[in-house]
Amino acid sequence: MNAIASYWGRPADKIVLRSTKTSPFGRKVRMALIALGLEERVQLQSANTMDEDDSLRQQNPLGKLPCLMIGGEAFYDSHVILEMLDAVAGGGRLLPRAGLERFRALTRARLADGITDAALLVSYENRFREPGQTSERWLAHQRGKITRALAAFEPDLPDPRRAELVQITLAAALGYLDWRQPLEWRADHPALENWLDTFGRSHRFWSETERTRE
Asked: Where is the GST N-terminal domain (predicted)?
């Protein structure tokens, strides 16, 4: 057993995922846990990023989700956690172990994360500003990131039947677009629409991690 798997497997240490069922980055982690058969080891504990008294701010000073607690030690963000899960599972399950292909996968996953980041900023602009204070220029800037990233994925989509880092990250991003609707993406990107439909049919964790609507 490798060192990280031994650390993960210490029975005295409870493993807690601080997240919510509505967090797109938390959903990435929950999908990966199921895909790797690690979900039974982890307890999901909700967190409120807006609550100053929530212990999340002591666990992750940034107050962001998700945060993985192993005993008293915190690990964040979602990308770090997914790399840890891959290592716990023996490596090479979510992304290549080494070489140029590993860095290509990391780059594509970051691109998918960027879609989610931009969608979050659109959502926050609309949720946290008073009517009349939202910046249309800022919203257009974020939506431009989303549309360019979607277009960049379409010529070279990853195999939707596989549960790897890029697929999980892209699916989480598209699911968040469907939920928060910062823009209408499906009509303009039919290849991605078909890809997500195939991904959802191929993996039980897609429906099992479906968000609870607010």
From this structure: 13-93
CATH of 3-88, one of 3.40.50.1370, 3.40.30.10, 1.10.10.10, 3.40.50.2300: 3.40.30.10
pLDDT tens-digit series, residues 47-96? 999 999 999 999 999 999 999 999 899 999 999 999 999 999 999 999 99
Pick the CATH number of 100-204 from 3.40.50.150, 2.60.40.1610, 1.20.1050.10, 3.40.50.670: 1.20.1050.10
Q: Do residues 46 and 99 touch, judged by C-beta distance below 8 A?
A: no
Beta-carbon count within 10 A of 208 CB: 11
Nearest Cα neighbor of 109 from 89, 125, 86, 88 is 86
Distances, alpha carbon 153 to alpha carbons 15, 141, 164, 171, in Å: 34, 19, 15, 12
DSSP-assigned letter for residue 99: S
By CB atoms closer than 10 A (0-12, 13-18, 19+), residue 142 is: buried
Residue at 107: amino acid letter: T
Cα distance between residue 89 and residue 4, in whole Å: 9
Tokens of 132: 């009349």
